[in-house]
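Protocol step 4 of 6: structure prediction from sequence.
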Amino acid sequence: MLSVFQARILWTTVQSRFHHCVSASLPAVTSALNFVDGKRVDSVSTDKSEEFELTEPATGQVLRHVQSAGQQDVDNAVQSAKKAFKSWSQTSGIERGKVMLKAAQVVREKFEDFVHAEVVDTGKPIWEARYDIEGCTETIEYFAGLAPTIMGTHLQLPNGNFAYTRREPVGVVGGIGAWNYPYQMASWKTSPAIACGNTIVFKPSPLTPLTAVMLAEVYSQVGLPDGVFNVIQGQGQTGSLLSSHPDVDKMTFTGSVSTGQKIMTACAKGIKHITLELGGKSPLILFADCDLDNAVKGAMMANFMTQGQVCSNGTRVFVHKSILEPFLAKLVERTKKMKIGDPFAEDTMVGATISKEQAEKVLRYVDIAKKEGARVLFGGERVTLSDPKFSGGHYLSPCILTQCHDDMTVVKEEVFGSVMSVLTFSDEDEVIRRANDSVFGLAGGVFTNDLARAHRVVAQMEAGSIYINNYNVYPVGVPFGGYKMSGLGRENARESIDHYTQVKSVYVETNDVDCPY
């Protein structure tokens, strides 16, 4: 009898043989992609200038055209959420948690459907998509468990008086996700919102619209009231309409700094709550005493997952001078073995870059790096797959740059591709200063066998998420978020509750009023 995992592998192998000819006919693709008031609906907007193509990154095939949600669409979704908030906010945490657990269970039952849609959407290898769907479904379960624990406090005061607090939901949440982890975006933002008693209108990236709608549909199937979880599709204008809507009480956004600034400006006008997870240019420090094999694996994890399209990537790899040569030798040896190919193939390690524009952007950064004096030790080139059905996709070999220095463009700016910049250092104080010399502060990492040094260094690093002897792992319950221009707030942990609730203080007098008038 096949194990569940073996069955998944077998089913995925069957799917991979046919997916390129059937992707455009998948129900997840052909069905209406907005989800408002408990059902899939088409956009009522007819503005063709706001229509966009949904393209499969692996093949370059245009799967369909999608109409961006306009003013009326956004208003319909927000009003549905506002109406649902009145009753959903009054349900108990236990009730909310039960609905969320049921949703997580159904996602597991439809696991391969979600995985398949995620690969079609993103072009990432299927094994990565499995990790994403599994791990982020645990996020739903985690917040389902937290829902009954959301409560206020009690303070005993003199003379029998007392005060208490109520932790209440903020209202209608507007969420906007990025394209690199679409299911993660939907689950990380909706889970705390729903657990706390809020309602939400979520806009995925126009590049990856599928799994957010599938998740909303699952929630509806297990009994989440209509209007609690709505999805609208669209480009930048749709996001602007959502973030500036007067009935949206909070925005949560993951994406670029420039877009985050626009959303923050819109929220400032309405004095809205906001959380932002923005860009990064994170440092990974490899000390001389580190386990070299683990350091190599960590550097690859910090740069090459999801075709390098990860905001927390440790793309500035600081290597102690004494171990540079053996580190590079091992790194190149392992990187050369990474198979670039069909994202649905089980042995593929590098899938397709999300779009033509993103691939060209990555290659421009490599060209600039070479002009500024960097040496391409490996990769940084277009790869043409042997099967012609992939000719429309954009495949790049992971790039290792050496002879880099701190003022290079590629070292200072976020590339959002598999481009590792290797720098050298001599002492601890020097590398800490250089690691912190960035406008970003999302993540960072340290590899060393000296734990006293590890804790000493991370205490001085100006970043919100730090790894010791590993990189880019996101266990649910560990807060994720940045310092400086990398954002505000924390996700995927209990700390998120603070960002989706507001505190009401209540003073109770048990005696006559003491009044001097």
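Step 5 (inspection) to follow. The chain has 16 helices and 24 strands.
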